[in-house]
Design goal:
Shape of chain B: globular
Number of domains of chain A: 1
Strand order of the largest sheet of chain B: 3-31-4-5-9-10-11-12-20-21-23
Structural class of chain A: mainly alpha
Low-confidence stretches of chain A: none
Shape of chain A: elongated
Mean pLDDT of chain B: 95
Distance between the termini of chain A: 32 Å
Radius of gyration of chain A: 17 Å
Largest sheet of chain A: none
Distance between the termini of chain B: 65 Å
Largest sheet of chain B: 11 strands, mixed
Helix content of chain B: 25-40%
Order of helices and strands of chain A: HHHHH
Number of strands of chain B: 31
Number of helices of chain A: 5
Oligomer: heterodimer
Number of strands of chain A: 0
Strand content of chain A: under 5%
Chain lengths: 125, 826
């Protein structure tokens, strides 16, 4: 349940941050990190949730654009990335790029959370 | 330990973002910022337009004076109905930007010598070149001159305001695809950019002499005067000029006088103005295509089925995506015009209105000359003229370089033009000299005014007044009206030259070699309502040798399209628009018609091998059409090409400096006169003197060998051999249209070469209700992610046309052919 929540939240906040297109494209690292700070999971699960949330968001957004565009632009861009004429591969690459940045953001959030927890526990003692 | 993990993962995150947010060098180009480029909310996916898009829009701007309704038809052609002129040009600027913003900015950046700013230091020499020939200076001069005229200033300023209204409406994710790819942003549009664009056209149509004058000088010095004259003849025997032979011309009031020392100092092969020195080659200047030209003609009612005139025009320029052309209608309560516009400039450039139609072809006249100038020292502040030191204007321009240091370019301007080649900017053929360029395009032209007036012209007098504003590049303006008049005029500001003036680099130390004046415009070649019932032009020489002024070397004037156009129009009667479309797309090769018998005359068929016999037989039986599937066209092309190489290729290859390749008619006309042996000898074979018979045999053998390899690759069919393509402006293959199965070629009415040709075709039937057909090699949208990116390309390849929807405002509002609507109001 926690995992699903953090994946959906990553995607949702990633989308909301992305609406503000004056911000740089990578601003979602902060939202992904904040989610990792708040929802306690293992290091691997945190990375996995961060990756998957953003992967799904970018994959789905690109897929929607590509479908309504009838693959016109992706067929022209894919060869520039050495992906032949595969629109789907380009969409997957898009998702992976978003996913990696988000996953690393989440992992950084996870480690920050561990530091905070250490500080808090020291203080409590 | 926790801190270590934290910093480690933070570092990796930062590094990842950095790497994905950076342009990586890929050879001479750079990658986009991958993360940004792929981001679906910001990057290129945003440019993936819906396949059933909506272009409806309501624009509000306080600058507008009234209302504009724009109806957009299913071809994405906008029909602009404005309450007044200002609003019409505002809307045109907005619409051009809406569909072609990146291209508009890129072309004007190129013209302004600003490509280094977006592409980096690789473009520095190109930028310096454009600045040195005076592109920016010329645009500034034109703007200063044009601003004195309130009509021009209003139109160009209104246009700029419209472009800027669009730019400021853009959210970051909306900017065109190419900005994201190259990673920069649109800047504010200015009126100067329209003038820069016009300079770009002027260069494309009159700028070849930046190198041909050097090459011609080399050729004259290398071959010696007599051989030079044979190889690059001034006279074209088979010329059919724009103004028919025998037409009388006005006696000029004043004729230019050649300097007294011209024979020794200028025309001799030991040219004293050229001091040989070892060239330090750095840069090959960009040279406009030799075939930048066009066809246009108008037939009067006496020759048409409907008794109404028909006007046709197809300009031949480089084939690019997005296209140079944008189709649209512009309408206000006082005028209503339709046709091809230039994204980057207001008005319709080639088109028609409710009363008339007009079109243009390039005049090809020599309006650019080179001089060798002597400066006192490296500072280039003083130069020698008639024995005195004269001060130059020291113009300084700053070139910004992406990821590099800015470059300050000094451009001294003299009475002989601005410094083009010198020690700092050398080309192999300028030999370390200081060479200046003098060009009418930089002399303060009215630019777009002629088109603003043509759009409103109602009759012949209006047309005459309109085109009298046009100065550079010289154009043949064809005209037809519903009143029944047809006319053509070669219009421009042409230099009154003494014979051979400006064919070669001139001594720039003596005022006698300066331009002595301009030809009065009323003496420009002109014709109205001729008895033969048609007027035409195809970049050939405008007049025969009785015209009192020197026109420049014949290499400026292609010969054969004019011959076939005039022959066809002479023969035709009861003409319909369909006949004209068929003629515009005709692949008949009149050059081959003349050259094939000449070839066969000198070919010893008995000496051929069976396969040579077979292929030459195919060429002999060829129907003389360069249709896509013809093999004969390819065989002929290869044989003729090889023959030219066999005749003068050896001499040219032996020169230290680059020489101009002589024109095909030079060889053909000598062969037809029985003088084919001239230069037929292969200078590389000692002790043997080849004749034209030998050269033809050598050519046939070489061509057949080549055809055999082509056969293996399945490339003998003409269109496959020619391989026409339309390049994206950044030359990205997947954004271009490649391997188009279209016929035609050089010397053919359908002048489609591999990356060059009749990008816009138009036929206008001036019946009571105008009937017009257009097609161009592109699509209305410049967005490679739009279904409208290359809409017309297939039609264009097939040679079919689209009927123009030319309606009045009320009719347009209720037309079911209009798909979208934009409205503009304040």
């Amino acid at each position: 349940m926690k995992l699903l929540t953090s994946i959906l939240l990553t995607a949702y906040l990633g989308y909301v941050v992305g609406v503000y297109t004056n911000f740089p494209w990578w601003f979602f690292v902060f939202s992904s990190a904040v989610i990792a700070l708040t929802i306690r999971q293992s290091a691997f699960t945190t990375f996995f949730a961060g990756f998957t949330g953003m992967f799904l968001l970018w994959f789905i957004l690109a897929l929607i654009k590509d479908t309504s565009n009838q693959h016109l632009l992706s067929q022209r861009v894919a060869p520039m990335f050495g992906l032949g004429n595969s629109s789907l591969l380009l969409i997957v690459v898009t998702g992976v790029v978003g996913g990696l940045v988000s996953g690393m953001g989440a992992l950084t959030g996870y480690h920050l959370r561990r530091i905070f927890r250490a500080i808090i526990s020291i203080n409590l003692e | 330990m926790r801190f270590v993990y934290f910093f480690l993962s933070l570092s990796i995150t930062v590094a990842l973002v950095w790497a994905l947010n950076r342009q990586w060098p890929l050879g001479s180009i750079k990658s986009p910022r991958i993360g940004y480029f792929l981001s679906p909310q910001q990057g290129f996916w945003q440019n993936a337009e819906s396949a059933s898009p909506s272009f409806d829009l309501a624009v509000k701007s306080p600058e507008l004076k009234g209302k504009v309704d724009v109806y957009i038809d299913q071809k994405l052609v906008p029909h602009v109905y404005a309450d007044n002129d200002f609003d019409a040009y505002f809307a045109q600027g907005f619409i051009h930007a809406r569909f072609r913003l990146w291209q508009m900015e890129f072309q004007t950046h190129a013209a302004a010598g600003r490509l280094s700013e977006i592409l980096g230091k690789e473009m520095l020499n190109t930028d310096r070149f454009f600045r040195r020939i005076g592109m920016v200076y010329g645009a500034e001069q034109a703007m200063a001159e044009s601003d004195k005229d309130s009509t021009s200033k209003m139109a160009i300023d209104a246009y700029a305001a419209g472009v800027n209204a669009y730019i400021s409406s853009l959210r970051p994710e909306d900017i065109p695809f190419e900005y994201k790819l190259l990673d920069y942003e649109p800047e504010k549009w200015t009126s100067l950019k329209t003038y820069l664009f016009m300079m770009f056209m002027a260069f494309d149509l009159s700028g070849r002499d930046v190198t041909t004058d050097l090459q011609m000088t080399n050729a004259k010095n290398y071959f010696g005067w007599d051989n030079f004259r044979q190889l690059y003849p001034l006279v074209q025997d088979s010329l059919d000029p724009i103004i028919p032979r025998g037409t009388p011309f006005i006696k000029p009031v004043k004729r230019p006088i050649a300097p007294s020392d011209v024979a020794v100092r200028y025309l001799s092969s030991s040219d004293s103005s050229i001091a040989y020195s070892t060239p330090e080659s750095k840069f090959t200047p960009r040279q406009p295509d030799a075939d930048n030209g066009s066809n246009n003609w108008a037939v009067s009612g006496s020759k048409t089925k409907s008794k109404a005139p028909i006007l046709c025009n197809d300009p031949h320029l480089g084939l690019n995506l997005p296209s140079l052309w944008f189709e649209m209608q512009l309408s206000t309560p006082t005028y209503n015009t339709y046709g091809a516009s230039f994204p980057g400039a207001p008005a319709i450039v080639i088109g028609f209105n409710d009363s008339i139609a007009w079109g243009v072809t390039n005049a090809g006249r020599d309006v650019m000359d080179l001089y060798t100038v002597r400066f006192k020292d490296e500072l280039k502040k003083e130069y020698l003229m008639n024995g005195n030191w004269i001060m130059s204007d020291q113009r300084q321009e700053m070139i910004l370089v992406k990821d590099g240091a800015n470059v300050s370019e000094l451009i001294p301007i003299t009475k002989f033009g601005s410094v083009l080649y010198d020690k700092d900017f050398n080309v192999p053929d300028s030999r370390g000299l200081t060479v200046t360029v003098k060009w009418t395009a930089t002399a303060g032209n009215q630019g777009i005014k002629a088109f603003l007036l043509l759009n409103r012209a109602k009759n012949f007098n209006d047309y005459s007044a309109a085109i009298s504003q046009w100065t550079c590049p010289g154009q043949n303006f064809v005209f037809a009206s519903k009143a029944g008049d047809i006319a053509i005029k070669q219009q421009g500001k042409f230099i009154a030259k003494w014979k051979h003036q400006g064919d070669f680099v001139m001594p720039g130390t003596d005022s006698f070699y300066q331009w002595q004046g301009y030809i009065p415009m009323q003496e420009n070649p002109f014709m109205i309502n001729p008895v033969r019932g048609f007027v035409s032009s195809a970049n050939q020489k405008p007049v025969d040798s009785t015209y009192p002024y020197y026109l420049g070397s014949a290499g400026h004037f292609p010969l054969y399209r004019g011959i076939i156009i005039n022959r066809k129009l002479n023969e035709m009667n009861g003409i319909t628009p369909e006949d004209m479309m068929k003629m515009q797309t005709s692949n008949y090769n009149v050059f081959a018609e003349m050259a094939r018998p000449a070839l066969m005359k000198y070919l010893d068929k008995n000496a051929l091998t069976p396969n040579e016999k077979k292929l030459i037989g195919e060429m002999e039986n060829w129907n003389l059409r360069n249709d896509p599937k013809e093999r004969g066209a390819t065989i002929f092309h290869c044989v003729w090409d090889s023959l030219e190489s066999a005749v003068w290729g050896d001499e040219i290859a032996a020169s230290k400096f680059s020489l101009p390749w002589p024109d095909s008619y030079s060889l053909l006309e000598r062969m037809l006169k029985g003088k084919g042996d001239f230069m037929a000898d292969d200078i590389r074979t000692k002790g043997k003197t080849e004749t034209i018979q030998d050269a033809v045999m050598i050519a046939v053998r070489k061509a057949v060998k080549h055809i055999e390899t082509l056969e293996g690759a399945g490339k003998v069919n003409w269109s496959v051999f020619k391989d026409t393509y339309i390049n994206h402006l950044l030359k990205l293959p997947s954004f271009s249209r490649l391997h188009l199965g279209i016929g035609g070629g050089e010397n053919i009415i359908n002048a489609t070469k591999s990356n060059h040709g009749p990008g816009w075709r138009m036929v206008v039937h001036l019946t009571a209700e105008t009937e017009a057909y257009c097609v161009y090699a592109g699509g209305q949208s410049g967005n490679p992610g739009s279904v409208y990116y290359d809409t017309f390309v297939n039609n264009w390849v097939e040679g079919t046309y689209n009927k123009a929807l030319f309606l009045k405002r009320e009719a347009a509002a209720s037309s079911d052919q209009m798909k979208w609507r934009m409205s503009f109001s304040n």
